[in-house]
């Protein structure tokens, strides 16, 4: 932990229809809590982009819909990311899609990455794309690596 610093807090925001991205959010949350970070998990339609100014980092876990579309219930949050100033904070994106969709696989992950970059936040680690639920060892290892990279960037 950085000398004199208080506990870092991380916001995790997920969008889900069938539960896979909530599972991803939960895996990341548990991994970060194991590193003694404070975590707040919220569903995207309830999330306020301006509230992110109260956190040290944000992780977004979106599903991808028709032809590489963003989750519709997350469009307000997505648009507001252009208005917030998250300079000095970190972000990461990890989402679930379906590899069947080929070039459109997990496109929402890359779209959130580009949008979060506009907020001034610094990308903490590579984007993670998961086929359906995070149920392989590789998926869990990747999500643990995201948590490790993020906590290291936060000085923990
Ligand atoms: C109508 C429809 C369109 C979809 N389009 C895409 C797509 O373009 N790219 C992709 O990667 N996944 C696509 N998916 C798959 C979902 O993103 C995938 O099932 C994901 O795991 C859902 O996450 P959730 O369980 O959190 O809702 C689509 C699913 C449906 C039902």
From TrEMBL:
<dbReference type="GO" id="GO:0016651">
    <property type="term" value="F:oxidoreductase activity, acting on NAD(P)H"/>
</dbReference>
<keyword id="KW-0285">Flavoprotein</keyword>
<dbReference type="InterPro" id="IPR029039">
    <property type="entry name" value="Flavoprotein-like_sf"/>
</dbReference>
<dbReference type="GO" id="GO:0010181">
    <property type="term" value="F:FMN binding"/>
</dbReference>
<keyword id="KW-0288">FMN</keyword>
<dbReference type="InterPro" id="IPR008254">
    <property type="entry name" value="Flavodoxin/NO_synth"/>
</dbReference>
<dbReference type="Pfam" id="PF00258">
    <property type="entry name" value="Flavodoxin_1"/>
</dbReference>
<feature type="domain" description="Flavodoxin-like">
    <location>
        <begin position="10"/>
        <end position="151"/>
    </location>
</feature>
<keyword id="KW-0813">Transport</keyword>
<comment type="similarity">
    <text>Belongs to the flavodoxin family.</text>
</comment>
<keyword id="KW-0249">Electron transport</keyword>
<protein>
    <submittedName>
        <fullName>Flavodoxin</fullName>
    </submittedName>
</protein>
<dbReference type="InterPro" id="IPR050619">
    <property type="entry name" value="Flavodoxin"/>
</dbReference>
<comment type="function">
    <text>Low-potential electron donor to a number of redox enzymes.</text>
</comment>
């Amino acid at each position: 932990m950085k000398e004199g610093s208080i506990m870092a807090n991380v916001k995790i925001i997920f969008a889900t229809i069938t539960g896979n991205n909530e599972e991803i959010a939960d895996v990341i949350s548990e991994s970060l809590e194991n590193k003694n970070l404070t975590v707040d998990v919220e569903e995207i339609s309830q999330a306020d982009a301006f509230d992110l100014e109260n956190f040290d980092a944000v992780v977004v876990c979106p599903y991808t819909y028709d032809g590489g579309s963003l989750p519709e219930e997350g469009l307000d949050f997505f648009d507001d990311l252009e208005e917030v100033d998250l300079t000095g904070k970190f972000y990461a994106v990890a989402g679930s899609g379906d590899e069947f969709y080929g070039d459109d696989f997990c496109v929402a992950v890359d779209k959130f990455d580009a949008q979060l970059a506009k907020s001034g936040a610094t990308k903490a680690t590579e984007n993670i794309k998961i086929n359906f639920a995070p149920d392989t060892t590789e998926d869990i290892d990747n999500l643990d690596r995201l948590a490790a990279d993020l906590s290291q960037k936060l000085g923990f």
